[in-house]
Design brief:
single chain; mainly beta; Immunoglobulin-like; 4 domains; 17-stranded mixed β-sheet; 44% strand; globular; LysM; FecR; LysM domain-containing protein; signal
Length: 433
């Protein structure tokens, strides 16, 4: 196997999942396409890829105001061309998981990809098991989970106005200047915020607003009623006629301590008094700007399917009360172990006489898969990254170093991305020499 050279900054470390850097958007004409940072990438490697030489990494660092280059965060958007670094008339998609698209009048529907600019008049739509993160002025982020639709009404350096058509939207808004406005509309309501983390949900015929931190002012667009102020830890079912009543949100469910020590994918938690159902979410970062999976059920446990690749994840649990308000989040770091066989059948790893290893998985012949090999279960640094495998097996090696190697094969979507919904994984050991 070819030797893998480490850049001077070293690999991405999963225990250093920190808040994403502020979004910086170049608006100069003819600007080079932005780059959305992936796990394990460094300024050294990105500069070599985008600027033909890794020696220009200080230039990229300065232009994008990156602090510590070894802590480059997944989802950060980097720009390489000169020009104003202030969003003007557009936002940027910073992360996509699964199938999501953009609709714009007079333009064919377009699949969302990281780095794609979003303008007023655009509508973002997420499919089943899909998530989109949108970066807007000042480093604020908007996360659109599965089966949701969001219209961009206005967006520039001073105004962000969005309309939730259906589903859910979760916003993390940085503290703004007095002349800046951030508002999410849903039905006949407008929710204006400043320096806050909140959710708006229009699901199963019920419209709710829930504030995790900060403050939200809810006002009917007709302004026939006085505004409702939702403060930290409170929410309300938002009624289109009659007054809406704020109430406290349920506390966060707590994981049973020994559940994280078990080598399985079932996470058990202590039931919350008054809870009717629960939601589990998994993400690649602590701020949940890179979500990858969720499920909802009665509890008091959730089992994550084998199709989701093994590795470290951030886990979030919430409880729903009888009014269907979603409670405060309980977050933690968990590890998903490898499950041999993936979606069905059995995966195998067979050592060959020449020192190579043949890996096979129970996939579909002729289907395209992405195949990855790494030394660590989080796949932070890839030794093999093959995006187009039209088979159900790969031969890798020979290996210069002994130890455990981890692999995963995921079904490729029509646009070439890897799907977390259909995948296989495993590991094998190479004897030390």
């Amino acid at each position: 196997m070819a030797t893998t050279h480490q850049p001077p900054f070293g690999p991405f470390r999963p225990h250093r999942l920190l808040a994403c850097a502020a979004l910086l958007v170049a608006t100069a004409a003819g600007a080079q396409s932005p780059h959305v940072v992936k796990p394990g990438e460094t300024l050294w490697g990105i500069s070599g890829q985008q600027l033909d030489t890794p020696l220009r990494w200080p230039e990229v660092q300065q232009r994008n105001q990156v602090g510590e280059p070894r802590l480059l965060q997944p989802g950060t958007v980097l720009y390489f061309a000169d020009g104003r670094l202030v969003p003007e008339g557009a936002a940027v998609v910073t992360a996509v998981e699964g199938r999501a698209s953009r609709k714009r009048a007079g333009v064919p529907e377009q699949v969302l990809t990281p780095g794609l600019p979003i303008q007023a008049g655009d509508t973002l739509i997420t499919g089943t098991d899909a998530f989109v993160t949108l970066g807007v002025a000042g480093g604020s982020r908007v996360v659109l989970p599965s089966r949701s639709a969001l219209e961009v009404l206005a967006i520039d350096a001073n105004t962000v106005r969005l309309r939730l058509i259906e589903g859910r939207v979760e916003s993390q808004v940085h503290k703004q200047q007095p002349n800046q406005q951030f508002e999410i509309r849903a039905r006949s309501m407008g929710l204006g915020v400043r320096g806050t983390h909140f959710r708006v949900r229009d699901e199963d015929g019920v419209l709710t607003g829930e504030v995790i931190s900060g403050e939200v002012v809810v006002q009917r667009t007709a302004q026939s009623e006085p505004p409702l102020v939702l403060r930290e830890g409170r929410g309300a079912v938002l009624l289109e006629s009659g007054p809406s009543q704020a109430q406290g949100l349920l506390p966060a469910p707590q994981l049973v301590p020994e559940t994280t020590a078990r080598n399985d994918r079932t996470f058990r938690f202590t039931p919350v008094a008054g809870a009717q159902t629960y939601r589990l979410q998994l993400a690649r970062d602590e701020r949940f700007l890179l979500p990858v999976y969720e499920q909802r059920g009665p509890g008091p446990s959730f089992t994550v399917p084998a199709e989701l690749p093994s590795g470290l994840y951030q886990l979030r649990l919430t409880a729903f009360d009888a009014a269907r308000l979603e409670g405060l989040p309980g977050d933690g770091t968990v590890y998903l172990p490898t499950v041999e066989g993936g979606a069905g059948g059995q995966s195998t790893s067979t050592a060959l006489p020449d020192g190579r290893v043949e890996v096979r998985w129970p996939g579909i012949a002729g289907q395209r898969y992405t195949f990855e090999l790494a030394r660590s279960p989080d796949f932070a640094v890839l030794l093999v990254n093959e995006p187009a495998v039209y088979a159900t097996g790969m031969t890798v090696g020979p290996f210069a170093l002994g130890g455990r190697y981890h692999w995963r094969a995921r079904q490729a979507t029509p646009d070439g991305a890897a799907s977390a919904a259909t995948g296989f994984g495993g590991s094998f050991d190479i004897p030390a020499r």
